[in-house]
Specification:
This protein has about 575 residues and is an all-alpha fold. The chain contains 25 helices and no strands.
Length: about 575
């Protein structure tokens, strides 16, 4: 099946020719949808027939043409076609790392496309990712998701806007087939075929898919009808000869499964030479192995060997676990017929190893199918829930209305109570502020009275003796005149300026008691002479003390003396 898909894609691309590369009318000036078709034809020719360096230069010119239009759709169309070019080059050379990067780049481009404004671009990009995933270890689950998204977008696009959607819709049916949903593949493929009454190469692909799906369902009469239709109408194919060989071998496979060995041999022997001539290796290997199996059962060693040679000659070209299992099983049967039990057993052991790998893949696909069925059941359950919610909608609306009214009344009462409580708290706060202010005023008055009394006392008893010794003594002792005076002053000061001295100590943990006293005196905004009287020292000693304290403040806090004291409220 994959081989027939590759054939269709190859010949779809091969009809492109170099004449298009020399066209005089720039492709991005063509109207849509003709622009899509022409651009894809150019891209396909570049990917299949041109040297990569030549193709790269041509792609640069196409990009410049697209940008010159200043048209967002034209630029998006170019970016989409550039991804198509990379896709064709990648699958042609089986470069899986590049394919993985291509998928990432395509997803990033999709995220920038407005599906409502540019549905064709979005649909083609989703289809492109689906195709890329088809070559990435049969990642059906993700592939199927993008194909369905593409189909959903295509379904809303008028044929006049994008008439080339046939193959894209066929690919959705193909995804069903690959995922094992054969009846759904038939239903969708027949729906797609009915949408396009005029037959072309797409019809060949679609009818062949229908036939293969019927074959998997063991509905052999419908299968034969499909393959006979292809045999009669192979002229619509891009390569009629190749499809004639495919149809012959497909019919042979049907009769082989039905147990009609004579008809199977008749069709297979007609198709195999054509497949060999056209180098359709996958189909050729499958058909030849079926003939080997038939001739082994008939104990016809000569004919079995003849077709076994065809299979062994091409086995290195086919990378498939299923094929590896089949060929080793056929070789085991053949050597059993020849009486070489040792070789027969060896090939049988190899076949069983490949079968274990196949069983693992089958179980994995069954798991994906089970996940999808679970998702469908979940969706049905959700739909039933929605119906029940609609049934009870009126009751819910009434209940919600009553609840809303009750909530409004409750909130209103709560708001009124909160407002009253806030009003009471504000009045209490005002009363407390009045009391605090009054107390502070009284403390300031008492502090002022205390200072005035000490100033008067100092004026009446001026200091005598050596000034430097007195300053030194005041710096090292925590006294005003006496410890009792300082204690009384500090008590009054802290009442007027709560926590002021504590904040000073937090800022300057190593401050001495004398320095702390100097700051407390300075806080009262006294001049130098008044401070000297209070401390019973000379004004010059006050200035020196402030200077020393300023140096200490500067080293620790990078502030001046005045900045420091004013910052402590």
């Amino acid at each position: 099946m994959r081989a027939s898909k590759k054939i269709a894609l190859f010949f779809l691309l091969f009809i492109c020719n170099n004449v298009l590369l020399a066209q005089q009318t720039p492709v991005f000036k063509l109207p849509f949808p003709r622009q899509y078709k022409t651009l894809d034809t150019i891209i396909d020719t570049l990917a299949l027939q041109c040297n990569p360096k030549v193709a790269a230069l041509r792609l640069q010119k196409l990009e410049l043409q697209a940008r010159a239009t200043n048209n967002e759709l034209a630029l998006l169309n170019y970016k989409r076609s550039e991804i198509r070019y990379r896709y064709i080059r990648t699958i042609n050379h089986e470069k899986r790392p590049e394919l993985n990067q291509l998928i990432v780049d395509t997803e990033q481009l999709i995220s920038k496309v407005d599906e409502q404004q540019y549905p064709v671009i979005a649909a083609l990009l989703h289809f492109q990712i689906g195709n890329s995933l088809d070559y990435q270890k049969y990642n059906y689950k993700e592939q199927f998701k993008h194909y369905l998204k593409s189909y959903d977008l295509f379904r809303k696009i008028p044929l006049a806007q994008f008439p080339y959607r046939y193959y894209s819709q066929y690919a959705i049916a193909l995804a069903y087939y690959q995922f094992g949903e054969f009846q759904k593949a038939i239903t969708l493929a027949e729906e797609v075929e009915a949408l396009f009454p005029q037959k072309d190469f797409n019809s060949i692909l679609t009818v062949n898919l229908i036939g293969l799906s019927y074959l998997e369902l063991k509905k052999y009469d419908q299968t034969i009808d499909s393959f006979e239709w292809i045999l009669k109408n192979n002229k619509y194919a891009l390569n009629p000869t190749a499809w004639k060989g495919i149809a012959y071998c497909n019919l042979g496979s049907v009769y082989y499964r039905k147990g009609n060995k004579d008809k199977a041999i008749l069709y297979l022997t007609q198709g195999i030479p054509i497949l060999k001539q056209e180098a359709l290796l996958d189909n050729l290997a499958s058909a030849s192995m079926q003939l080997v199996k038939i001739y082994v059962l008939q104990k016809n060693s000569f004919e079995a060997k003849r077709y076994l040679n065809i299979v062994t000659d091409i086995q290195d070209e086919i990378k498939s676990t299923t094929f590896s299992y089949e060929i080793n099983k056929v070789l085991s049967d053949y050597y059993q017929l020849e009486g070489n039990s040792k070789l027969a057993l060896s090939y049988l052991q190899l076949a069983n190893r490949y079968k274990d790998s196949i069983d693992f893949s089958v179980n994995k696909n069954k798991m994906h199918a089970a996940e999808m069925n679970f998702a469908k059941e979940k969706q049905r359950f959700l739909l039933n829930q929605i119906e029940e919610k609609i049934t009870h909608q009126r009751i819910i609306v009434i209940v919600l209305s009553l609840f809303t009214i009750l909530l409004f009344i409750t909130l209103r009462i709560f708001f009124d109570r909160s407002k009253l409580k806030l009003k009471i708290e504000q009045q209490e706060l005002r009363d407390k502020n009045i009391i605090i202010t009054t107390e502070l005023d009284r403390a300031n008055v008492r502090l002022e009275q205390f200072l005035q009394s000490r100033l008067q006392k100092d004026r009446e008893n001026p200091i005598t003796g050596d000034r430097e010794n007195i300053v030194s003594k005041l710096v090292n002792e925590s006294t005003l005149h006496t410890k009792e005076d300082w204690g009384e002053y500090r008590t009054l000061f802290e009442q007027a300026h709560p926590r002021y001295l504590q904040r000073v100590k937090e800022k300057l943990p190593k401050i001495s008691p004398a320095e702390l006293r100097l700051i407390a005196i300075h806080k009262l905004n006294l001049n130098t002479n008044e401070m000297a009287l209070i401390l019973n020292i000379s004004p010059d000693a006050v200035r020196k003390s402030k200077k020393r304290l300023s140096l200490k403040i500067g080293e620790n806090l990078q502030q001046s003396f005045d900045e420091f004291t004013s910052s402590l409220l």
